[in-house]
């Protein structure tokens, strides 16, 4: 891949993304603007950012490996995310917005108390560092494999780059990068797919050279029980993961929060078919990959069929979109530490300037932790094992109780800690101790069913018991008071603060529009160098250029003057 044009594409895009982070260096006035976009982020921006944050967690390496080994079941697994997002949009996303909380941890403190919040912050931070650290590993693996560079230096260097623009720019920097990578990757895959099919001899050549069960909805260890459990898991995960909750709380209303989740669902109905076909096609071209080598299937099909320039574009999109997931988690972990630990417990009277300093500093600290985790992923069996194992162990116990508390007035802090503790203990026993002490290991499906099902059964049992006693949690009454106070405080926002938030959001939309224009020009330029696929590349460049009008027009609708001045301006213009 070591060609001048591919390297140039990677360097130019990297510099452009870092520049985006620097553009937002002075826009974060306080925690609300830095971590939640002033709670006025357009819903379509939030939805696309949510999609990229989730989509990039291992699509190319983890799901690409499953698609190569087992075929269509990789698409079936990802369709569970569509179902989870639909349920979230109907029931959960608007509830999160109605809480008035900046972060999920803030809601947990208000509804379930400080003790539960402290325990959850510790567990969430640990889990996030492991999962998102493992996501940094495939980024480094992609770059090191394509550029023939050592893995460890790549991991460290890319980790520092990832931390830099997240720590500087906050939520808007992360979201703009998400949108840019969505466009870049979508363009690259729409070029990759027809070239891959052409390489294998079309649909007929593809289907004739893969195993007979390759297009089964279920395959291998991914059974019906696993898929059913994964549906429940993704309802909890998409609806309750603190990273995604930030997307529902950063928009302007519960209705917009619904739209964020519904857009995510729509994208995950269509995109898995498009994204998973290239590694499936590579199975027909080269069926000999085994072990951790299957994690390279996506990269190998790209290197095989994409011409110079377009290969650099695809690698850049894979690199940044995968790191986008880690960036989002880094932003949320930093938000939780700054808002709920430093401000909530250590220094409640801290100034906005001090809080922003803490936010940026904590981004660096947690980012370095992610780099350390990424370096250990190969020894843990690869990203598929790490991500699925951590999810099955912590997902249900950590996510289910707060979601239950969104609807229940009976759940207490003591019951929450018991449910979480029992769930984690049982899951850890079956994952770690049972294979060592009893020579017994659960299947992937059973592991997921127990991991998600046990906390839900415990919560249901407690709810029925509390209802039979007709008891209401004392924490619930305190939560009602806190929620009302927060709503009252939100109504007295100063005109200066409201103006600053509108300026920030207008600027963010303009940067997105400019980024799309830059991407369109890049695609147009690359089309002139492409030996194959030049026409498709140029056409996609035109589509991206037209798409830039959407955020630009949205930015023009952001009012920077108070309504009274807007009215005066309109009257004067009529005269």
Describe the protein in words:
This protein has 575 residues and is mainly alpha-helical. It has one domain (3-21, 40-492): Sodium/glucose cotransporter (Up-down Bundle). It has 23 helices and no strands. It has helices at residues 4-23, 31-36, 43-55, 59-70, 73-99, 104-112, 114-147, 151-200, 202-208, 224-240, 242-249, 254-285, 297-305, 310-346, 352-374, 383-407, 413-438, 444-469, 474-490, 495-527, 534-547, 549-556, 563-574. It is globular and about 70 Å long.
Keywords:
single chain; 575 residues; mainly alpha; Sodium/glucose cotransporter; 81% helix; globular
Task: Summarize it.
With 575 residues, the chain is an all-alpha fold. It has helices at 4-23, 31-36, 43-55, 59-70, 73-99, 104-112, 114-147, 151-200, 202-208, 224-240, 242-249, 254-285, 297-305, 310-346, 352-374, 383-407, 413-438, 444-469, 474-490, 495-527, 534-547, 549-556, 563-574.
How is the secondary structure organized here?
Elements: H1 4-23, H2 31-36, H3 43-55, H4 59-70, H5 73-99, H6 104-112, H7 114-147, H8 151-200, H9 202-208, H10 224-240, H11 242-249, H12 254-285, H13 297-305, H14 310-346, H15 352-374, H16 383-407, H17 413-438, H18 444-469, H19 474-490, H20 495-527, H21 534-547, H22 549-556, H23 563-574
Helix pairs in contact: 1-8, 1-14, 3-8, 3-12, 3-14, 4-12, 5-10, 5-12, 6-7, 7-8, 7-14, 7-15, 7-16, 8-9, 8-12, 8-14, 8-15, 8-20, 8-21, 10-11, 10-16, 10-18, 12-13, 14-15, 16-17, 16-18, 17-18, 20-21, 20-22
Membrane topology: Multi-pass membrane protein
InterPro entries: Na/Glc_symporter_sf (IPR038377), Na/solute_symporter (IPR001734), Sodium:Solute_Symporter_SSF (IPR051163)
Pfam families: SSF
């Amino acid at each position: 891949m070591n060609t001048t044009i591919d390297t140039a594409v990677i360097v130019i895009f990297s510099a452009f993304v870092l520049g985006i982070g620097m553009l937002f260096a002075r826009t974060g006035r306080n925690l609300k603007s830095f971590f939640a976009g002033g709670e006025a982020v357009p819903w379509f921006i939030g939805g696309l950012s949510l999609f990229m944050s989730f989509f990039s967690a291992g699509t190319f390496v983890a799901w690409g490996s499953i698609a190569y080994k087992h075929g269509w079941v990789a698409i079936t697994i990802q369709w569970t995310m569509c179902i989870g997002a639909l349920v979230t949009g109907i029931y959960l996303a608007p509830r999160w917005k109605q809480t008035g909380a900046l972060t999920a941890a803030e809601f947990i403190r208000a509804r379930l108390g400080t003790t539960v919040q402290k325990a959850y912050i510790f567990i969430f931070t640990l889990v996030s560092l492991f999962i998102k650290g493992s996501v940094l590993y495939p980024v480094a693996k992609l770059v090191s494999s394509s550029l023939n560079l050592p893995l460890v230096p790549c991991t460290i260097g890319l980790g520092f780059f990832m931390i830099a623009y997240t720590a500087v720019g906050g939520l808007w920097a992360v979201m703009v990068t998400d949108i840019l990578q969505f466009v870049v990757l979508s363009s690259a895959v729409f070029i990759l797919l027809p070239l891959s099919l052409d390489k294998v001899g079309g649909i007929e050549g593809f289907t004739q050279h893969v195993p007979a069960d390759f297009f089964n909805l279920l395959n291998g260890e991914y059974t019906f029980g696993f898929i059913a459990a994964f549906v429940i898991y993704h309802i909890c995960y998409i609806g309750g993961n603190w990273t995604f909750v930030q997307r529902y709380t950063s928009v302007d209303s519960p209705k917009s929060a619904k739209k964020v989740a519904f857009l995510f669902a729509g994208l995950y109905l269509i995109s898995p078919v498009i994204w998973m076909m290239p590694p499936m096609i590579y199975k027909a071209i080269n069926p000999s990959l085994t072990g951790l080598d299957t994690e390279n299937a996506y990269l190998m099909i790209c290197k095989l069929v994409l011409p110079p320039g377009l290969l650099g574009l695809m690698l850049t999109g894979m690199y940044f979109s995968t790191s986008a997931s880690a960036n989002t988690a880094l932003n949320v972990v930093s938000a939780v530490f700054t808002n709920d630990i430093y401000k909530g417990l250590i220094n409640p009277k801290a100034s906005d300037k001090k809080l922003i300093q803490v936010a940026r500093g904590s981004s660096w600290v947690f980012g370095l932790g992610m780099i350390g985790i990424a370096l250990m992923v190969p020894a843990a069996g690869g990203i598929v094992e790490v991500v699925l194992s951590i999810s099955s162990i912590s997902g249900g116990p950590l996510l289910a109780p707060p979601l239950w508390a969104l609807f229940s007035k009976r759940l207490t802090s003591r019951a929450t800690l018991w449910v979480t503790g029992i769930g984690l203990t049982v899951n850890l026993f079956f994952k770690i101790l049972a294979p060592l002490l009893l020579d017994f290991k659960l299947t992937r499906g059973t592991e997921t069913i127990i991991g998600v099902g046990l906390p839900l059964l415990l919560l249901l049992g407690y709810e029925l018991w509390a209802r039979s006693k007709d008891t209401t949690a004392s924490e619930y009454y305190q939560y009602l008071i806190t929620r009302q106070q927060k709503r009252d405080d939100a109504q007295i926002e100063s005109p200066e603060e409201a103006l600053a938030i509108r300026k920030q959001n207008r600027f963010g939309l303009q940067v997105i529009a400019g980024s799309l224009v830059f991407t369109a020009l890049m695609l147009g330029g690359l089309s002139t160098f492409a030996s194959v696929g030049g026409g498709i590349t140029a056409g996609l460049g035109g589509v991206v250029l037209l798409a830039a009008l959407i955020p630009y027009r949205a930015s023009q609708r952001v009012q920077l003057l108070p309504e009274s001045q807007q009215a005066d301006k309109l009257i004067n213009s009529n005269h």
